[in-house]
């Protein structure tokens, strides 16, 4: 058991931080007991509040999605769900799924931005989008599930509803996060966003 003496404080701290970042110890009784003895009870509320603090949504120049308050990692999802997510972020007023075919050109433009590094044929993108907006199938609901799954990796459960596309079937769907928390660095996407929000 003398092995721990050979690990420097810096190395031990690094290992501990990595363990805490990559594992959920919230139900481990031994860990909670030690944490409870280090952190005074009055501070536990502060920790909970910080955990449930709203993060900005940052769409970078390449259309990648980041939630900096929760993780430094990109929130990865396939091109189509990412296109739909950014589309609803731009249309904060909400859109009915059945009327999405009216926005197929806008969806196409967003898709081209997020799929920048992949040279996808225009006709293939069109087919994919037409299938998405076709009112008779459930593709849009499947796409929203993929978005939710991607975000569930980084967003606290209590705040999921603010970041995902929500709404009742047959009514407008929207992303409820406040516009002040949306930061778009891609010029074309920023232009589309501002066009909707500055009138």
Protein architecture, described:
With 199 residues, this protein is α+β, with helices and mostly antiparallel strands. The protein has helices at 9-22, 29-38, 44-51, 79-90, 104-114, 122-133, 139-152, 160-163, 187-197; strands at residues 57-59, 65-66, 74-75, 95-96, 172-173, 182-184. It folds into two domains: 2-38, no CATH class; 57-197, no CATH class. The chain contains nine helices and six strands. The protein has a four-stranded mixed sheet. Strand 2 and strand 3 (74-75) form a beta hairpin. The longest helix has 14 residues, at 9-22. The protein is elongated. Mean pLDDT is 82; it is low at 39-51.
Descriptors:
about 200 residues; alpha+beta; 2 domains; two-stranded antiparallel ribbon; 9 helices; about 50% helix
């Amino acid at each position: 058991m003398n092995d721990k003496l050979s690990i420097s404080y810096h190395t031990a701290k690094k290992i501990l931080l990595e363990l805490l970042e990559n594992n959920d110890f919230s139900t481990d009784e031994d860990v909670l007991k030690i944490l409870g003895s280090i952190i005074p009870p009055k501070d536990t509320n502060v920790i909970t509040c910080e955990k449930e603090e709203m993060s900005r949504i940052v769409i970078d120049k390449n259309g990648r999605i980041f939630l900096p308050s929760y993780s430094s990692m990109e929130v990865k999802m396939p091109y189509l769900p990412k296109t739909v997510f950014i589309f609803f972020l731009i249309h904060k007023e909400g859109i009915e799924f059945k009327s999405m075919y009216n926005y197929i050109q806008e969806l196409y433009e967003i898709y081209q931005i997020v799929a920048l590094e992949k040279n996808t044929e225009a006709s293939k993108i069109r087919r994919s989008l037409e299938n998405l907006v076709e009112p008779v199938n459930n593709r849009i609901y499947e796409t929203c599930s993929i978005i939710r799954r991607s975000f569930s990796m980084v967003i606290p459960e209590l705040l999921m509803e603010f970041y995902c596309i929500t709404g009742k079937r047959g009514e407008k769907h929207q992303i409820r996060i406040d516009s002040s928390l949306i930061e778009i660095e891609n010029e074309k996407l920023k232009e589309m966003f501002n066009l909707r929000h500055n009138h």
